[in-house]
């Protein structure tokens, strides 16, 4: 009987030894997903004849614009748009613009000019010279030549530029009314509306 109990005990120890494996436990904590950010912040500035312009700088989600008022032959000015990607992923900048011209107030001196409003869209598109630079490079007009105001919309809408995280692109629009331009532009208007868009690259 003792021999049988001893045998069972030895068998139990043997089985226990066969199944007594080593084990270990490790952890992996703090696995986190954080989405990148893409944020376009525009700033608008301008210069012009004293007392003839106002600037609303705008900012993130706020419309910025420059309004020129009572401009006349010999006047000139600029609008500067500074566009910054404040996010942490790269993007592609594009824009949709609408540049419109109108007759506004038609004065008697303007109506007396032969061939007035020959283009059908007002006259500032014909008689205001413009230049547009992107980061110092001319994309409309050049250092010695004024471009056509009528071509500004197509030039803006053709833009597609890489704007890396933390990067900035600056557009400078310069306009000029030659002193030889007479009554034909009296009361005429021009309006530039631009929607800037930044998409993930």
Can you give a write-up of this model?
- The chain is built from four helices and eleven strands.
- By secondary structure, the protein is α+β, with helices and mostly antiparallel strands.
- Strands 1, 4, 6, 7, 8 and 10 form a six-stranded antiparallel beta sheet that branches. A three-stranded antiparallel beta sheet has the order 9-5-11. Strands 2-3 form a two-stranded antiparallel ribbon.
- A hairpin with an 8-residue loop joins β2 and β3.
- The protein is elongated, with a radius of gyration of 35 Å.
- The N and C termini lie far apart (84 Å).
- The mean pLDDT is 90.
**Approximate helicity band:** 10-25%
Topology order in helix (H) and strand (E) letters: HEEEEEHHEEEHEEE
- Shape by Cα distribution: elongated
Span between termini: 84 Å
Please report the total strand number as a whole number: 11
Report Rg.
35 Å
Q: Structural class of the helix and strand makeup? A: alpha+beta
Poorly predicted regions are: none
Beta fraction:
35-45%
Rounded mean pLDDT is 90
For the record, the count of structural domains works out to: 1
Oligomer: single chain
Described by strand count, sense and barrel closure, the largest sheet is: 6 strands, antiparallel
Task: Tally the helices.
Answer: 4
